């Protein structure tokens, strides 16, 4: 775990170089470079299409950041409606990648059209490359401890240090405990989609087929990873009766493990109770908002697959 790589001084203030931002930037560069390579093989104009990729990439990056932040704000609207200025504090964390994926696709398709490229042909290989970039960027979540997993005893569990380093996004109450490595799960998810995209590019029957299949599989794999997440205090959805974040917080206050502001004050007692299997210590989601969105995305993928597959102008001949 390495949230802050180093800190530099400027105008009397300290500014940390955060590993999350560095890895996201590296993922962007990797995604663009691989998309350019794929454009030379699958683009309409192998000579000029690669030159157009960086500009499309910037639109995609803007979509990822704005869409992911907007998604987080909507999911946590009760908090942000009372603290509107904190909506801009993206450096404090808070991104929902469904929102990023959807807005990135919208802005990316728009920019592809403006560049005069064949839309679905271009989006197919660019989305494939984008998932490789996401796999690199997701390593940033591991570096800062974001999107962490639930406590577990599986052999491949990971443990974050106690005490946590400066800049950590990991839950202090779980520091030193074995948890599911959900960040590597998400890296594997994105890398698997990249490999699937490469195979589909070689075997697709119509332009757009790669996009809708990857979009649908993203929802399926994301829903699976959601089952192992441990940050239910920060997520939304439908909770088990009596185990919503508010109800669990009340229970922890009564047990003397949290103060009146919902901050942990007796972490050792909490960890011991958790290890002993005491009920009511963690929120329990029946279905998360991300899983509900995944269902909608899956339906959309089926509809889009049939629509694009029936378009004669998008079908590939056997010689293509």
Q: Features of this protein?
A:
mainly alpha, single chain, 320 residues, 10 helices
Summarize the structure in words.
- With 320 residues, the chain is mostly helical.
- It has a domain at 15-203.
- Helices cover 57% and strands 8% of the residues.
- It has ten helices and six strands.
- The protein has helices spanning 19-42, 49-75, 77-82, 97-114, 119-144, 182-203, 209-226, 245-254, 267-275, 289-309, and strands at 4-10, 13-18, 158-159, 178-179, 237-239, 285-288.
- A two-stranded antiparallel sheet has the order 1-2. A two-stranded antiparallel ribbon has the order 3-4.
- Strand 1 (4-10) and strand 2 form a beta hairpin.
- The longest helix has 27 residues, at 49-75.
Write the layout of secondary structure elements.
Blueprint: E1 4-10, E2 13-18, H1 19-42, H2 49-75, H3 77-82, H4 97-114, H5 119-144, E3 158-159, E4 178-179, H6 182-203, H7 209-226, E5 237-239, H8 245-254, H9 267-275, E6 285-288, H10 289-309
Large-scale geometry: globular
Order of helices and strands: EEHHHHHEEHHEHHEH
Q: Would you tell me the overall average pLDDT?
A: 89
The total count of strands amounts to: 6
Structural class assignment: mainly alpha
Number of separate helices = 10
Low-confidence sequence ranges: none
Q: What portion of residues is helical?
A: 55-70%
Main beta sheet, described?
2 strands, antiparallel
**C-alpha Rg (nearest Å):** 22 Å
Percentage of β-strand residues: 5-15%
- In whole angstroms, the N-to-C terminal distance is 47 Å
Strand order of the largest sheet: 1-2
């Amino acid at each position: 775990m390495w949230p802050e790589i180093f800190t530099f001084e400027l105008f009397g203030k300290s500014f940390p170089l955060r590993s999350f931002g560095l890895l996201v930037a590296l993922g962007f560069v990797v995604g663009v470079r691989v998309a350019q390579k794929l454009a030379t093989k699958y683009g309409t104009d192998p000579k000029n299409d690669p030159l157009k990729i960086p500009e499309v990439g910037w639109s995609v990056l803007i979509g990822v950041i704005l869409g992911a932040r907007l998604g987080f704000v909507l999911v946590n609207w009760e908090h942000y409606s009372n603290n509107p200025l904190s909506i801009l504090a993206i450096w404090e964390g808070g991104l929902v990648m469904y929102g990023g994926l959807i807005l990135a696709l919208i802005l990316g398709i728009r920019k592809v059209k403006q560049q005069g490229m064949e839309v679905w042909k271009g989006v197919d290989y660019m989305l494939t490359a984008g998932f490789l970039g996401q796999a690199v960027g997701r390593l940033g979540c591991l570096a800062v401890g974001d999107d962490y997993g639930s406590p577990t005893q599986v052999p491949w569990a990971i443990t974050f240090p106690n005490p946590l380093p400066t800049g950590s996004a990991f839950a202090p109450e779980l520091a030193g405990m074995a948890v599911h490595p959900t960040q590597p799960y998400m890296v594997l998810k994105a890398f698997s989609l990249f490999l699937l995209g490469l195979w589909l590019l070689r075997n697709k029957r119509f332009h757009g087929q790669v996009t809708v299949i990857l979009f649908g599989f993203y929802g399926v794999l994301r829903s699976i990873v959601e089952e192992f997440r441990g940050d239910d205090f920060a997520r939304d959805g439908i909770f088990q009766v009596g185990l919503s974040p508010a109800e669990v917080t009340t229970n922890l206050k009564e047990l003397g493990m949290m103060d009146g502001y919902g901050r942990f004050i007796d972490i050792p007692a909490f960890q011991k109770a958790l290890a002993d299997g005491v009920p009511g210590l963690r929120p329990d989601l029946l279905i998360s908002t991300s899983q509900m969105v995944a269902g909608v995305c899956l339906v959309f993928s089926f509809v889009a697959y049939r629509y694009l597959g029936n378009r004669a102008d998008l079908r590939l001949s056997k010689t293509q």
